[in-house]
Write a structure and sequence with these properties.
The protein is α/β, with parallel strands linked by helices. Helices cover about 45% and strands about 10% of the residues. The chain has three domains: about 180 residues, Ferritin (Up-down Bundle); about 280 residues, Rossmann fold; about 40 residues. The chain has a nine-stranded mixed β-sheet, with helices on both faces. Helix 11 links the parallel strand 2 and strand 3. Helix 9 packs across helix 10 and helix 9 runs parallel beside helix 14.
């Protein structure tokens, strides 16, 4: 995108959000989110359909075009424009006339606009089997004050997706991501159920580099991992057709949101037959993925079901019933191909906990050499929780660095973007990815820039040393202290502060000594 386009898009996003949030009135952000994003989706598919239709009408009458229709008349042209295949071949959804945005906008002030939108969505689903069960038909019963839904339709009408399908998809994708982030902030604690901060997703994707094969997220939320994977593939000259997407999500509305998020980008996906629990109703039991990326909900305590006893996924030990962290880790290992890798966001406690068999499972995983990289993250990364988090990277079968784990301490690498929010810059993400890439290279590889331990940042550690630490995987235990350059002035300043502090403490010590002597003297003790 050109800089002026980016600036214009930023203005559009901010204006849209400010207006949409004002229209929300007293409706819960979690509920309102689906109304807004659903309408944006309908506007997009209607705009791209109209753009394709206009393009076809022009090409049918252009004698130099492959689509030229000789000896055609108005009736023949009209009939050709109704041929679904022309739209399907460029990943454009077919939109019947009654469901096109112009029809909805014309009826925006009608009292039954909610029902009209629901009917339009029903027809669109019928005409596009790929969207079956995805569109959330809740407009007729939306608890908005009179006229607000019509105002929302008018607002969404101001989004112009243009005639270029590629740019339209990009604009929509960015509007979607912006709104998801804003809603996550507005929802507060609930927001993290469906939204992983973009810089964390980018870090997972950059380290894993999922450019081919099967990509899986067993708790996919709104599909952010897949979207960033798509961007990574395109940025590195690959083709979307080189990967196939698999996901699962238990929340029905979020499951639909993920499907829409992928559908608008023309990404083929399989999110299972239905939204349901990954542990008890695994939608992809036979899947063996090349890459797994996931941000499971932290420390779930009510995940266990009796049917999970003796499950083949628990290769390294049965996870405790009061915490699902090690269930997620083992679920992902189970679903990896022999050459597969996984990247997972988890609470920091997962790196060191020893209660209820977690320490035993972690020891078994380390000894099996399936833990590849551990990264400690800064605080304040997530909208919904202040629980400090980390990244686990697992490898089913390491091809290099057998018997070693790379530890990276990135706790000080975050940048504050607001009073309550931290993120990684692209430069930091690039540094972390480059560190892991250099570490993974075979020792015999002819590279001028090899891997080296950096005190306070990264260190490659043998399994026997990890065993000496009780198989705790906290990077701070291993990377050591950061090396500080000699600086006489800084040293002198520090020495002065320490000397003053010592003087104060010695003076207090003298005062306390005198006080003790007085008290003991008063009690008749001779000193």
């Amino acid at each position: 995108m050109e800089p002026e386009q980016i600036h214009m898009l930023d203005d559009i996003k901010k204006t849209l959000w400010a207006t949409a949030d004002k229209l929300r009135a007293n409706m819960d952000a979690a509920e309102y989110k689906h109304l807004v994003l659903g309408l944006i989706f309908v506007k997009y598919i209607s705009d791209t359909f109209a753009a394709r239709r206009t393009e076809l009408a022009r090409r049918f009458t252009d004698t130099s075009d492959d689509y030229f229709l000789p000896d055609s008349n108005d009736a023949l042209l009209a009939a050709e424009l109704e041929d679904r295949d022309y739209y399907k071949e460029v990943n454009v959804f077919w939109v019947p006339e009654s469901s096109r945005w112009e029809a909805l906008r014309a009826a925006a002030k009608q009292h039954d606009i909610g029902k009209r939108i629901d009917d339009a969505l029903t027809v669109i689903e019928v005409e596009n089997p790929k969207l079956k069960g995805i569109l959330d038909k809740r407009y007729g019963r939306a608890q908005l004050p009179d006229g607000k839904l019509g105002e929302l339709v008018d607002l969404v009408s101001t989004i112009g997706f243009g005639d270029d399908p590629g740019k339209a998809r990009d604009v929509l994708g960015q509007v979607y991501e912006y709104f998801l982030g804003q809603f996550a902030s507005a929802e507060g604690k609930k927001g993290g159920q469906f939204y992983t901060p973009a810089s964390i997703v980018k870090t997972l994707v950059a380290v894993l580099a999922p450019h081919h094969g099967k990509v899986y997220d067993p708790c996919c939320g709104s599909g952010g991992m897949f979207v960033q994977s798509e961007k990574f593939i395109e940025a590195h000259g690959g083709k979307l057709g080189d990967v196939s997407i698999y996901g699962q999500e238990s929340n029905p509305t979020t499951w639909r949101l993920a499907a829409m998020n992928l559908a608008i980008r023309g990404i083929d996906f399989n999110l299972g037959r239905e939204p349901t629990d990954t542990f008890t109703r695994n939608q992809h039991p036979d899947l063996r993925a090349d890459f797994i990326l996931a941000n499971p909900p932290f420390n779930i305590s009510d995940w266990w079901h009796g049917s999970l006893e003796g499950d083949p996924r628990w290769e390294f030990g049965t996870p405790p019933q009061g915490n699902a962290n090690y269930a997620w880790l083992q679920h992902m290992l189970y679903h990896l191909k022999p050459t597969g890798r996984a990247g997972i966001v988890l609470a920091n406690g997962s790196m060191s906990s020893s209660q209820n068999s977690e320490g035993d499972i972690r020891r078994a995983m380390v000894e099996a050499d399936v833990v590849e990289v551990m990264i400690a993250l800064p605080g304040q990364l997530f909208f919904n929780t202040q629980i400090p988090a980390c990244l686990w990277f697992l490898a089913k079968q390491k091809t290099t660095r057998q018997g070693e784990v790379l530890f990276i301490d990135a706790r000080k690498l975050g940048s504050m973007i607001s009073r309550v929010q931290t993120e990684f810059t692209d430069e930091v993400i690039g540094r972390i990815a480059a560190t892991v890439e250099a570490w993974r290279r075979p020792a015999s590889a002819d590279f001028s820039e090899g891997y080296a331990d950096i005190p306070g940042y990264c260190r490659s550690v043998k399994l026997d040393e990890i065993a000496q630490h009780g198989h705790v995987l906290t990077p701070g235990r291993y990377v050591g202290a950061e090396e500080v350059e000699d600086d006489d002035e800084a040293f002198a300043e520090k020495m002065q502060v320490l000397t003053e502090r010592l003087g104060e403490q010695m003076a207090k010590g003298v005062e306390l000594d005198q006080l003790i002597r007085q008290k003991l003297g008063g009690l008749g003790y001779e000193l």
